[in-house]
Sequence to fold (865 residues):
Amino acid sequence: MSELGKRVVDDLYVHVTAFESLKQEEWREPIRRMLGQLPLISSLTFAQPNVVKLNLRTGRISLLEYGNFDEDPFPELIASWTFTSAEAADPTYRNYTQSLNPPILHRKELLVSVQHPGRAQWCELTSVAESLGLFDDTRAIGFRLNWQRLIQQRGYQLLGKTLLPIGNDIGAAALATIDDGGGDVQRHLTAIHRASLSAPVQLLIRHGLLSQDDSLFDYGCGRGGDIEALKADGYRAAGWDPHYAPDEPTLASEVVNLGFVVNVIEDPAERVDALQRAFSLASRVLVVAVMLYTVDKPGRPFRDGFMTSRNTFQKYFSQGEFKDYLEQVLHQPAFMVGPGVALIFADKEAEQRYSAGRYRRQGLAHRLLAARVPRVRPIRDSGAARAVRAAKQPRQSKAEVQLAEHRPLLDKLWNLCLELGRQPELDEVVFLAEIELAFASLGRALRLIALHYDRSLWQAAAAARADDVQLYMATLQFSKRQTYSRLDSRMQRDVKAFFGDYQSAHAAGLRLLIEATVPDNLLTACRTAATQGLGWLDDQHSLQLHVSMVERLPAVLRAYIACALLLWESISEVQLIKIHIGSGKVTLMEFEDFDLSPVPTLRRRIKVNIRRQDYDLFDYGSPEYPKPPLYRKSRYLNEDCQGYAEQIAFDETLESLDLLDSSGYGPPAAELTKQLKLQRLKLVGMQLAPSDQIPDLDQACGKNFTYRSFIECGETQQALGLTNLPLNPATYNALYALATQVLDPVIDYFGGIRLTYGFCSPELGKHINKRVAPKLDQHACSEHNRAGKLICDRRGAACDLIVDDEDMREVAEWVVANTPIDRLYFYGPGRPIHVSFGPQHSRVAYEMVSTQPGKAVPKPFKSSQ
Fold:
């Protein structure tokens, strides 16, 4: 690359008038094309980018528009158009005109050719700034307010194109021009009492970046909940907070947490300072967490965020904005590990280990061993039988005695071997002293394992780890090839163990990418994955699965997905991935409350076209494009996923309601709520619960009735004109169940029926004295008496019905044989039958037999056949 341009880490900045002077044609041609097509693809026809930013590592190209580039000594960024690669067609657009602290440009003379007319003057200004020490620490100067404050701290001010000393009489006024006077923001009120570790600290532990041997410093620790919890678990933790712990020292540590601090700082310049200071304390990694945008308006607009009712400030980010912001402030790659949570590494070796670990499946040993657990029936063993077996036992060798004595220690080593997929080196065995004490050497212990443990498991582990390395090598094809010495020690050992040398490993990675371009390979792998319960295969078109299962997929599918993620990096918000087998596409889907709702709604869909190196973005939530619900969620999960049992139970219940079509699609979210309401159900957590609402009396109750049908069907009610209204929502639920489970099937078979007696309220019951048993007959459903007790402990619901022109014995026989009744009473061939449906489902039937005039006793109902 030519010396032309300004280099900032992996980014090279060049003015549009000078990019033709770059030596490499591979850069010049795509830049010409992008500049030419930008007016065609941008809604801003007046867009005038004047700077090109090239990422020399990833190939990303950004066209930047700085305002008044020639006139302003440190021009501000107005807009950017980012192409993910030189071949990408459509850019990502970002507008900075509303930013209170936009990025600015320094040393702009480096971006232009030596013939540029303003270059000499710009060089002079840069020389003055250097002499004032303004470039001594370049971490935070790339933002307007931070740059202005630094100039003032040096005792200067920028007037036009000149840096001049600040006089004593204007110092205060000059400082005031930077702060727009937002009032007294109560930042400390945002600190909360924590019952458990915060999300960023949990993610540090989950990713193996924080152990009890490491020190953690919580910058902006609030009330110190994370620190107390970590100390209680044996971690070394300390913290500082400007309100709750202002006198605590700020300590350099391996790990630094800046959790939910950036978003409560109302001053954009101070925000940058906090990030820079926190990062300066981290020797290994900084974790940063912020609040993401939600659908609810959080308060009144204030500066670039919102002021809440408690006078606290909140700055909200999208996931993409957050990543972009961190990388602009710290000039380091940000790894998004969760919604609103990012890692920035100070230690490049740790970053390389983490990057390689992203392609290494987790818990391999546990999964292999769990799959081999024997499932045998326990055998009863007598003392005599044990004695006989003991007599037949051959004498054990010394190795076998040693094996039995130290089995737990060997099991621990065996687990390590399976996790690595190869023999561990000495420094990889943290319990090496125990091994050497028991077996004299690691080699001897490994020989015992080779003799007495399942070799096929080790071979399976080796194959899995070889796939992991091959996948990582495949991803390295898209960036500048690292030297073998730059790989972390574990990766070096993996390469040697599984491929022999670095060149062979790279070649294997390239082969994997080539294999991922062949649809037949993808189809075979998708079928293999579906066979293992990894996602739902839609014929030969696609495989759709939860993101947590990606690492368990065949290597060719993991490589295929990895190619897509090079174009869309915000995987931390994605829950489902859809692999399009024949079209060269991968769809990434983000849902609202995926883990908490059995029917989550789709918030965003990203369709990545790997062949075109492009993606289409679809946002949902507007009136035109409402958020579609995801039905049959369980088929995209695996049985060992958390909550799978509850989810599949819900899905089966929903299936039974006939609301979904055969393809798995169902009604929109609002229609689902409406349909559930009609079926006296509501969604509560991960299950369907009985409705607690009282419906309109004329609302449908099953296919053939309304609730009024059961309330106004009795002779006494009609004669007296009583309201006879149920007061308990559970009564309406019971009436609906009776209608759908018993009466609708009867009508489907016999035709119309006539209700002669239905619901009986306490008021109606006062007027019905003959041949009734309100404590047993279930006509009162779930209503209560004046004392607040159930009138009928059996609950459920009952009605009397007759089918005109039918022998009611035949009707009764059919009902008993074909419906899940609770009880049925048969009074005679031409008289109504009493049927009930309730939680007991006792399915008993009685025939009322007259013993004397006016009296009848129940006897078991017997079929005439």
About this structure: Residues 168-183, 187-195, 373-382 have pLDDT under 50 and may be disordered. Residues 207 and 354 are 8 Å apart (CA to CA). The radius of gyration is 36 Å. DSSP finds 27 helices and 33 strands in the chain.
